[in-house]
Automatic annotation (TrEMBL):
Transmembrane segments: none annotated. Its EC number is 2.8.1.7. Its cofactor is pyridoxal 5'-phosphate. It comes from the Bacteria. GO terms for molecular function: 2 iron, 2 sulfur cluster binding; cysteine desulfurase activity; metal ion binding. The keyword Zinc does not apply. This is cysteine desulfurase. Keywords: 2Fe-2S, Iron, Iron-sulfur, Metal-binding, Pyridoxal phosphate, Transferase. Belongs to the class-V pyridoxal-phosphate-dependent aminotransferase family. NifS/IscS subfamily. It comes from Niabella drilacis (strain DSM 25811 / CCM 8410 / CCUG 62505 / LMG 26954 / E90). Residues 6-367 form the Aminotransferase class V domain. It catalyses: (sulfur carrier)-H + L-cysteine = (sulfur carrier)-SH + L-alanine.
Length: 392
């Protein structure tokens, strides 16, 4: 049975898996101890649960449990990483290399650091959405303390050449940080193989609860240190003080364990559905898939529909299908996405973009319906658009 509306906005967030919720529940009402309480069984139980979650989350990304600290989400993790490293390594250098297509959690933090005296190199990307490795190499200088490049883009799903970037970072002995929020739990992520010193990710993108994230901090080769940004009780090795969100952390752990089990089959299934969706959309004239031909997350499709606007498409569809434009909404008008701009997508097309992101609950039945609905909507909108009717 098809249930409307169909949810195709899994890059924004995912439903918490019911197995995750079941595992979290006792930690609200029965095992409610503070994980820092060392003198009684309530505290020990909470601490044991946090340690198990650390193991599960670490296993998802090829890290050691002691290399995981928990945060409130990837935004916080990115902030802790960028600010913590800039502060601690200030004596060594003041230069960070990042890319123009990063999520705002990295972009705006880097802009803030720039205002405070850091030098930031903003790498361009090609039309394929990826940074040029030669440009990256040329940008490295003696003052470079960090390369910050995301694993996979949240708008287009384009995957960066992370392993090659890791090799370059190692070669130049520069620390490598990646925002892997969209990749973790979806693609094989191995922090050691990728040469990462530090990595941010989030629970709610991988079928865990909202409000919980993680930061991987390498302990060996390299041993990474951060200046604490949140001070207080000294929890989590003094890096991130504050009472641990035990139910959220337990949920994140369970979600990570499930992803490890199902991730590779899920990627194949969703990749096939995404390809079917794209085939269907491409039957329409003037449709462009952004990032097509690049390595992409298997569940993401970012499509531009010529002669229309994202707003009108989304408004016409939102009763039946939950989608997103993938670009920021300012003062009621949709700005063209900075990610698509950086990929040299013309403004008019960038303003006519819709992101379809599939997920664990997406069924094979839904895709033909989505294709039919979108096709019908695009045709109807174009048939009442002077720009379309008067085109050459
Ligand atoms: C690539 C990327 N980084 C960071 C974030 C922020 O994550 P959180 O919602 O956990 O703060 C998101 C969420 O949309 C994202 O897609």
């Amino acid at each position: 049975m098809l249930r409307l509306p169909i949810y195709l906005d899994h890059c924004a967030t995912t439903a918490c898996d019911e197995r995750v919720v079941a595992e979290m529940l006792p930690y609200f009402t029965r095992y409610y101890g503070n994980a820092s309480s060392r003198n009684h069984a309530f505290g020990w139980k909470a601490q044991a649960a946090v340690e198990e979650a650390q193991q599960r989350v670490a296993a998802l990304i090829g890290a050691e449990p002691g290399e995981i600290i928990f945060t409130s989400g990837a935004t916080e993790s990115c902030n802790l990483a960028l600010r913590g490293i800039s502060t601690l390594y200030a004596g060594t250098g003041n230069h960070i290399i990042t890319a123009k297509t990063e999520h705002k959690a990295v972009l705006d933090t880097c802009k803030d650091l720039e205002r405070n005296g850091m030098e930031i190199t903003w790498l361009d990307v090609g039309p394929n959405g990826q940074v040029d490795l030669q440009e990256l190499r040329s940008a490295i200088k003696p003052a470079t303390i960090l390369i910050a490049i995301m694993w996979a883009n949240n708008e287009t799903g384009v995957v960066m050449p992370v392993h090659e970037i890791g090799d370059i970072a190692r070669e130049h002995q520069v620390l490598f940080f990646s925002d892997a929020t969209q990749a973790a739990g979806k693609l094989p992520v191995d922090v050691k193989a990728a040469g990462l010193g530090i990595m941010a990710f989030s629970s709610h993108k991988l079928y865990g609860p909202k409000g919980t994230g993680a930061l991987y901090i390498s302990r060996r080769h390299p041993r990474v240190k951060l200046a604490a940004q949140i001070t207080g009780g000294g929890q989590q090795n003094n890096i991130r003080s504050g009472t641990l969100n035990v139910p959220g952390i337990v949920g994140f752990g369970k979600a990570a364990a499930i992803c490890r089990e199902v991730m590779s089959d899920e990627a194949v299934r969703l990749g096939a559905l995404r390809n079917k969706l794209e085939e269907g959309l491409l039957q329409l004239p003037e449709v462009y898939i952004n990032g097509y031909g690049s390595e992409r997350l298997p569940h993401v499709c970012n499509a531009s529909f010529g002669y229309l606007s994202s707003n009108e498409i989304l408004s016409a569809l939102n009763k039946d299908i939950a989608l997103s434009s993938g670009s920021a909404c300012t003062s009621g008008s949709l700005d063209p996405s900075y990610v698509l701009k950086a990929m040299q997508v013309p403004d008019l097309l960038a303003r006519a973009t819709v992101r379809f992101s599939l997920g664990r609950q997406t069924t094979g039945e839904e895709i033909p319906l989505v294709i039919r609905q979108v096709t019908h909507t695009i045709e109807a909108l174009r048939n009442s658009s002077p720009a379309w009717l008067l085109r050459d």
